[in-house]
Amino acid sequence: MQDKNQHKTIFHGEVLRMLSLPGKGDVWARRAERVMRACNYRGLVYNDEDLQIGMYRDGVMRRKSIVCGWMKIIFGLLVFALGVHLTIRANLGLAPWDCLGMGISCHTPLNYGLSMTIMSVLILGADVLLKEKIGFGTIIDALLTGNFVQLFHDVDPFPETGNLFVGILLIVGGLALMAIGQFFYMSSAQCCGPRDALLVGLGKRLRRLPIGAVQVLLWGTVLLLGWLLGGPVGIGTLVSTFGSGVVMQLIFTLIRFEPRNVAHQSVRDTVIALRRI
Questions:
Q1: Whole-model pTM?
Q2: What CA–CA distance (Å, rounded) separates 262 from 37?
Q3: Is 274 among the domain residues?
Q4: Which tens digit of pLDDT belongs to each residue from 36-79?
Q5: How many domains does the chain divide into?
Q6: Are 219 and 112 in contact (CB under 8 A)?
């Protein structure tokens, strides 16, 4: 029985075929080159000899690639957490998701922590409905992100600021670090956290929009709901909401990364791959 991941090899053979087309095929060749560069950015290395993606062997991820992917996820989450810490130290207002969490806690017996936890579970359910995979990246994200943010809070490398201009710079810098962190753990191809999976799932259904614009729409909707429920909104909240998508799109464009094109491996796929090695 042919492995269900063999389509990756077939796709790669099609890329090579396009590269060999003459005349008008040059247009396809240039497109194929861009596709292969995107593959390289997410750890999928092109191989001339056997027409297989280097991260795979007969459609299965190799153990070294899987473990390296885990290390990449952890590093990305560490960078992401530093970005979150910077936006908090800006002291200019809550992020949109936090605003919604506070709004929910105002109208229910739930405190802020429980509100955020339940919201994460609901978002995970939405991810499943959008047919986004749940992988080791999702689990690692759930276990480490909050702890990494707490680590930076305990170490406290950046003092809290009361200056508006400095605060905005901290938010923008934090958003940039968050986007860089997202690149690292998304490009590991082992899935991502519930909110990022929601972003990617919506982005796949809004292909005409840049992923940064989808982020602005998502965060804007979350902010509106939080505000309607009585969640606190500050200037930093607005900067985060409308600046996050712009910063993300700029960074992803510079590094030529499109998260919607990443072929993620679920927990089941990875476990099967490890057993076959």
A1: 0.75
A2: 12
A3: no
A4: 555 544 444 444 333 333 344 434 446 777 888 899 999 999 99
A5: 2
A6: no
